[in-house]
Amino acid sequence: MTIGSQVDAALAISKEQRQFAPEDKAIYASVATIGTADNATLNAKWSYVDGKDELFSSTTESIATDGPAVTTFKVQNPNAWPKGKYKVVISLNGKMVASEDFEVRG
User: Fold this and answer.
1) Which option is the CATH number for 2-104: 3.40.50.1110, 3.30.190.20, 1.10.10.60, 2.60.40.10?
2) How many CB atoms are located within 10 Å of the residue 62 CB?
3) What's the rounded Cα separation, in Å, for the pair 60 and 42?
4) pLDDT digits (tens, 9 = 90+) for 24-81
């Protein structure tokens, strides 16, 4: 998994990072998969972990691939992101496959 604040035309992360500014409007997580699947489900759960480990977004994408593929998830905040520690957890068909921590700093 790769996280960042910018994606390219193919929706892959173009600028990988683990620290974001409160004014960054979007944060992306790209997940690379390899293999064949007719109907797999990827889920991204985004949490603010400072304090209570509070889930603030969960998005599910169905994928059907035959070989390498990239699935990109996006969270947006129209306001400033609260400073602190965050994480995104990726599940494939309900089983956790990746987790990344990141931080919003002033």
Assistant:
1) 2.60.40.10
2) 10
3) 6
4) 999 999 998 888 888 899 999 999 998 788 999 999 999 888 888 889 999 999 999 9
Minimal CA–CA distance to 99: which of 36, 49, 50, 52? 49
Domain ranges of the chain: 2-104
**Widest Cα–Cα separation across the chain:** 43
pTM comes to 0.91
Give the up-direction half-sphere exposure of residue 42: CA atoms within 13 A in the CB hemisphere: 24
Neighbours of 59 (CB within 10 A): 13
Q: Residue 27 CB: number of other CB atoms within 10 A?
A: 22
